[in-house]
Write a structure and sequence with these properties.
Porin, 2 helices, globular
């Protein structure tokens, strides 16, 4: 399928909602007297983390026992006061497609100080609800998480158009065409020449189910493979107290006999005072990321496993997180069979904004 075909598909899918979006009201004006820098620069995330990571494979071999660190910045330059036109960037540590940590030299591995701009793209919203992006993009997943889709640090080079609606059952339609690859080259400035190439395309539709649930389905062409993904998130009523949401997501790789496969994730979110926990069971087939992977979250990789992720808010700027997983019932070698992580996260973004620093 050529880029021209994808462009026609984008127009066909997006036109009905785009026409409706033309009559939508314009966004409210920004608050009065913001810091001068905020007119031009919107810092969305300023983050520094350190973690101890330990895991072994299903043969009992120790793969990692190390202390790592993670600087991360996400920001955008605003061309206009209404923030309809912007240049968006994401920079972080890490050396590949699905990894944004550096080794400190404590434990297995030597020190690394890598820090690269991984995503850099122009974004335009000429009318409310109609959005265009072009450049080094993030992966868009809808209601499907990084557990069975693409890592939150992943990237492509290409173009995306998204139409969003605030009423009705159809919430969004998104389509992208681009280049998927260069897995060990995180620096976008070394990948911009891929803008003229095409091996990746996605059409995603998001919609509401009843009064509470939100769902999405997408078809993705991924460098010769065809993948279907579905996800649904069900927020629970306030009477549920600690339990806040349920999620189910799945994928099916349907290309041919040699690369077919499927997987799923089912989880629940719990919140109690300063503690937030996500726990669930997931399965990713042996060849989901073969041979370059993993493409999904580097914590999860392939295999059937149960897992838990918990975060304790120590202060508005400081959080303590754990991750634990145990794989089971797999008939192939699982790289991350048993795994523990303890992560200390420093994120002063909101505090600095309230103080008027930016």
């Amino acid at each position: 399928m050529t880029r021209a075909t994808w462009a026609a598909l984008v127009v066909i899918l997006g036109l009905p909602a785009a026409l409706q979006a033309q009559s939508a009201p314009q966004p409210a004006a920004a608050p009065a007297d913001p810091p001068a820098i905020r007119r031009w620069v919107d810092v969305q995330q300023l983050h520094l983390a350190s973690r101890y990571r330990w895991f072994e494979n299903s043969d009992g071999k120790l793969i990692s026992s190390t202390i790592q660190w993670q600087p991360m910045v996400r920001a955008r330059f605003l061309f206009d006061e209404a923030a309809k036109y912007s240049l968006n960037g994401f920079a972080a540590a890490g050396s590949n497609f699905a990894f944004s940590y550096n080794n400190t030299g404590g434990g297995i591995g030597t020190f690394s100080g890598k820090f690269n701009v991984k995503q850099l793209f122009l974004q335009a919203e000429p009318i409310e609800g109609l959005e265009f992006q072009v450049g080094g993009l993030h992966m868009y997943r809808g209601q499907v998480t990084e557990l069975i889709s693409y890592d939150t640090d992943a990237f492509i080079e290409g173009e995306r158009v998204t139409v969003r609606r605030t009423d009705g059952w159809l919430k969004e339609v998104s389509a992208v065409a681009g280049y998927f690859g260069d897995y060990s080259e995180p620096n976008i400035f070394n990948r911009f020449d891929r803008m003229s190439e095409w091996n990746y395309g996605q059409v995603l539709v998001g919609f509401g189910l009843g009064s509470r649930a939100i769902a999405s389905v997408d078809y993705t062409y991924e460098d010769g493979r065809d993948v279907l993904r579905e996800g649904v998130t069900v927020p629970l009523p306030t009477s549920a107290k600690v339990f806040k949401a349920l999620k189910f997501e799945a994928y099916q790789r349907v290309s041919d006999e040699n690369s077919e496969g499927e997987g799923f994730n089912g989880s629940t979110d719990l919140v109690w005072k300063r503690l937030a926990v996500t726990a669930g069971v997931m399965s990713v087939d042996e060849f989901y990321s073969f041979p370059q992977g993993p493409f999904n979250g580097d914590r999860y990789e392939s295999g059937t496993r149960w897992y838990s992720v918990g975060t304790i808010t120590l202060s508005p700027e400081l959080g303590l997180q754990w991750y634990h997983t145990q794989a089971f019932s797999n008939d192939f070698l699982v790289n991350s069979h048993k795994r523990w992580e303890v992560v200390l996260i420093f994120n002063p973004t909101a505090t600095l904004k309230r103080a008027g620093i930016f």
